[in-house]
Amino acid sequence: MSLLTLIIIGALCDILINYLADVLPIYRRPGKPLCSNCAKPLTLFNYVISFRCKNCGEGVSARTLVVLILSITASVLLWSFPFQNLSYWWTLPALVFLGVILVIDIEYRVVLIQTSIFGLGLMLLLGLVNQGFSLNGILTTVAGGLAGFAIMIGLYYFGILFSKIMSKLRRQEIEEIALGFGDVYVSTFLGLLIGWPAIISAIILAVLLSGGFSILYLAILSIVKKYKSFSAIPYTPFLIIGAILITYLLI
Hints:
Helices cover 72% and strands 0% of the residues. The protein is mainly alpha-helical. It folds into 2 domains: 1-81, no CATH class; 111-251, no CATH class. Helix 4 runs antiparallel to helix 5, helix 6 (135-170) runs antiparallel to helix 7 (181-194) and helix 8 packs across helix 9. The protein starts with a helix and ends with a helix. 31% of the residues are buried.
């Protein structure tokens, strides 16, 4: 496949990711995208071609351009470096889906139940294709999903317990918790995708990556005098990065 074709496919994935990330948090289903400035519906021309609202003249966000660059880069790399046993075309749905939940989690700090239910079905299918439809492949896929759920649900309740303990010690209510339940869903369908025992290594790597990022993030906040204890950061990106890195490291 030519480089130009891969770039075009990546750009189409970018449009779909940005569109779903724009409308799902509002409607919980496909709908008309709204201008982030005046909240009026955008036409297809304004949204895809001119990148500017016809009502107020507001341009595209930086996120739109970042997702475009990353989508094209991912399209090219996936053609050269396939994701485990999945073909390029089988990987594209995973690329779009993971891109959507990543953008929504970063911007809104939430993993929608609608995307989670869809993700469980999609990743189960991709996991079975990836592992093969043999009995061993089915067991590997299902075990990966169950392990991802079990580990993350344990961390989720540990985070709630930790927040309650710290609230009592500080005599101040701590609203933020270490993990949201959406992270449990993400860990589950990533487990279905990469299987057992890879999901264990992926979660461990995600914990290490998030810990390193948190230290750097809090250090920067302290330098600029904006430090706030128990500041929440989106965890889904680290789970996705951990799953991808482990997959390629285990090849």
